[in-house]
Specification:
Umud Fragment, subunit A, Beta Polymerase, domain 2, 8-stranded antiparallel β-sheet, 4-stranded mixed β-sheet, 14 strands
C-alpha cells in the first residue's frame, strides 16, 4: 500500500491507538546505520512505563509526518512526560516531543529477512552500543561523508526547509508574497527542534517571534510549544535590553561629565532606532567608540561602575592604533550588560591590507556622526553611509554569522533607502580601503533578502578578481552552510598576488610583542613564546575544524 506522509501518519495513529502493532518499511537516513533505508520496523503501542533513554520511539511530528528517532532524555512535569529525541545521524536535530505526540516504541528491526529484537538480549546490547556511538557518528562521520559526497558529485546539498524558514522570517516587514512563501515552508514536515536551535544560534529567535505574530492563524501551523519557546526568548531579550539601556544611561552620564565624546554602534544602536522594538534585536554587550586620549578617563569610570578589565589603570598602554585590536573588553558578570566593549578605532581584526588602518579616516567618522534617541536619551551613532560600511565590515569579520548581522544590514538599508547617498558610500568605501567588504555585504543581503540596492552599485564595487577562497566562502554563506573557508582565508584570498598573501599570513600569525599584548589583553612584559604557540594552535585548530565541515 502506498500513501503520502499525512495519510501514513493518520493510518498509523489509528492502528496503534486501537492497541494493535504496526509494521512498515523505513525511509530516510536519519537513523543510519542502525536503521537503514528499506528496513522493516515493528512498533508496539505506547506504554509510558516502558519508555527508557536510548529507546527508539515512533511519534507524530507537527501533524504532518511520522518519525522514528532515539530518546536522548526523558523530562517529567506535573505527571506529564516529554522526551528529547534525535536521529542517530543528526547531531543538531534534537527536538522535544510531548507525550501526546508519542505513538509507540520500536521493538524490532527486520534487515534483509533477519529480525533483531532491540528491547531484549543481544539486540538490546546492540541498540545501546549504537546509541552511545551515535554522537560520534553525527558530529564527525556525517560531516566527512557529506563533504566526500559533495566532492564526488560536485553538488552541495540544498538548503533545509528549517533554514529557509529562518531566512524568510527574519525581517521586520512582510509582503504578501513573503507571507505565502512562509506558509508554503510551514506546510513541509519541519524538524522544530532543529529550527529552534538554529534560530537561537542565528540570533533571530525574538525577531522571528514578532514576524510569526503577523501571520494569520500561525498557531495552527506552528506547534504551541515552539511559539511559547520563541515568546520566552523575546521577553527575556526585552527584559535584558531594558536593563542594558539603564546601565548605558549611567555610563553616558558619567562620560559626559568628563567631556568624553562617544559613538554607540552595533546592536544597541540598532535595537530601538532600527527595529522599532527593543525585544527584536538581542545583544550581549555594549559597543562604545571613544577617542584614544580619553581611554584612561573612561577606564576609571567603568571601574567605578564595577566593570573590570585585564589591564589595571597603571598598566594601560599608551594608546596607538593597532592592526590587530583596538578595543578593551570590560566585564561585570552580575550586571546587564555583562560586557562593555570600549573602542578607540573601528578596525578590530587584522585586515587583508595593512594600509586600511591608516586609510580609515576617524576624524571624518566623528564629524559625520549623527544623533539618535536611545531609551529616552540622546546619543551619537555612525552617519548613514558609515553605518552601512561598518556593518558590512563587521559582518565579514565574523564570516557573516550569525544571521542577525545580515538582518542589521538589510533592515538598515530598507529603513534608510531614501537617504542613502550611494555615490558617497562607494567613494568612502574606496577611500577607506573597505570596498570589497562593502561589496560582499551588499551582495549577500541582496541575494538572501532581495534588499533593494541599485545594480550600478554592484557594477562600481565588483572586484576585478575574485579568488577561489572568496567564491567558496560566499557560496556557503548564501546557502547558510558551514564552510571550509573562514574570514581569515577570505582575507588571504583578497590579496591579489602570492607575495601579498604570504605577507598577510606572516603578519596575522606573528604580531609584535606590543601588538600581542593588546590581542591577549595583558602587559607586553608578560608576553612570551606560549602566547605565540597558542595563537598558532588556534589557527591550525580553526583550519582543522573547517576541513571537517
Amino acid at each position: 500500500m502506498k500513501c503520502n506522509s499525512r495519510e501514513f501518519l493518520g493510518l498509523s495513529k489509528d492502528i496503534l491507538r486501537r492497541g494493535n502493532r504496526l509494521r512498515f518499511r523505513a525511509h530516510g537516513g536519519s537513523m543510519w546505520p542502525f536503521i537503514t533505508d528499506g528496513d522493516i520496523l515493528d512498533i508496539e503501542p505506547l506504554d509510558r512505563s516502558k519508555l527508557k533513554p536510548k529507546d527508539i520511539i515512533f511519534y507524530n511530528r507537527s501533524g504532518k509526518q511520522a518519525v522514528a528517532h532515539r530518546i536522548i532524555k526523558i523530562l517529567s512535569c506535573n505527571d506529564k512526560i516529554s522526551v528529547v529525541a534525535r536521529g542517530d545521524f543528526e547531531y543538531f536535530g534534537a527536538e522535544t516531543v510531548p507525550e501526546e505526540a508519542i505513538l509507540g516504541r520500536v521493538t524490532a528491526i527486520e534487515k534483509k529477512g533477519r529480525v533483531i529484537y532491540i528491547d531484549k538480549g543481544i539486540g538490546r546490547i546492540k541498540n545501546i552500543f549504537f546509541a552511545d556511538f551515535s554522537p560520534f557518528l553525527s558530529k564527525w562521520v556525517n560531516p566527512l561523508m557529506q563533504k566526500a559526497k559533495r566532492f564526488i558529485f560536485k553538488n552541495e546539498k540544498s538548503m533545509r526547509h528549517e533554514d529557509n524558514l529562518i531566512l524568510s522570517s527574519a525581517r521586520i516587514s512582510l509582503e504578501e508574497e513573503e507571507v505565502n512563501k512562509i506558509k508554503g515552508i510551514l506546510d513541509q514536515g519541519l524538524d522544530w527542534g532543529y529550527f529552534l536551535h538554529r534560530s537561537r544560534d542565528e540570533g533571530t529567535a525574538s525577531l522571528i517571534y514578532k514576524t510569526f505574530l503577523k501571520i494569520p492563524d500561525i498557531d495552527k501551523v506552528v506547534p504551541k510549544i515552539i511559539l511559547e519557546e520563541l515568546k520566552t526568548v523575546y521577553y527575556s531579550v526585552v527584559k535584558r535590553n531594558i536593563l542594558i539601556l539603564r546601565t548605558l544611561e549611567d555610563i553616558l552620564r558619567e562620560f559626559q561629565m568628563e567631556n568624553i565624546r562617544t559613538i554607540i554602534f552595533k546592536g544597541l544602536a540598532l535595537a530601538e532606532s532600527l527595529y522599532g522594538d527593543i525585544g527584536s534585536r538581542s545583544m550581549t554587550d555594549v559597543d562604545i567608540l571613544i577617542k584614544g586620549q580619553d581611554l584612561k578617563k573612561a577606564d576609571k569610570i567603568l571601574k567605578k561602575l564595577n566593570y573590570s578589565a585585564f589591564f589595571g589603570n597603571k598598566d594601560l598602554p599608551d594608546v596607538t592604533f593597532n592592526l590587530y585590536r583596538n578595543s578593551f573588553l570590560y566585564s561585570n558578570l552580575n550586571a546587564h550588560p555583562k560586557y562593555i566593549h570600549l573602542y578607540w578605532h573601528i578596525l578590530n581584526l587584522y585586515p587583508h591590507d595593512k594600509d586600511i588602518l591608516n586609510k580609515i579616516d576617524l576624524d571624518k567618522i566623528w564629524d559625520d556622526s549623527r544623533e539618535i534617541e536611545l531609551g529616552g536619551m540622546r546619543a551619537h551613532t555612525f552617519s548613514t553611509h558609515h553605518q552601512v560600511l561598518y556593518l558590512c565590515m563587521h559582518a565579514l569579520n565574523h564570516s557573516f554569522r550569525p544571521l542577525i548581522l545580515l538582518c542589521d544590514i538589510n533592515e538598515f538599508i530598507a529603513a534608510n533607502k531614501s537617504c542613502i547617498n550611494w555615490d558617497k558610500l562607494i567613494e568612502e568605501a574606496y577611500a577607506f580601503g573597505l570596498n570589497k567588504q562593502l561589496y560582499y555585504g551588499l551582495y549577500i543581503v541582496s541575494n538572501i533578502f532581495s534588499t533593494d540596492i541599485p545594480q550600478e552599485v554592484f557594477d562600481k564595487l565588483k572586484p576585478e578578481k575574485i579568488s577561489i577562497f572568496e567564491r567558496k566562502f560566499i557560496s556557503s554563506v548564501l546557502k547558510r552552510q558551514p564552510s571550509s573557508v573562514g574570514e581569515s582565508m577570505v582575507f588571504f584570498g583578497m590579496n591579489e598576488n602570492w607575495m601579498q598573501r604570504l605577507s598577510f599570513l606572516s603578519g596575522a600569525l606573528f604580531p609584535s610583542k606590543r601588538e600581542m599584548s593588546v590581542i591577549r589583553q595583558k602587559k607586553a612584559s608578560e608576553i612570551n613564546i606560549t602566547d605565540y604557540i597558542q595563537r598558532l594552535n588556534s589557527a591550525f585548530h580553526s583550519i582543522f575544524e573547517a576541513l571537517l565541515r
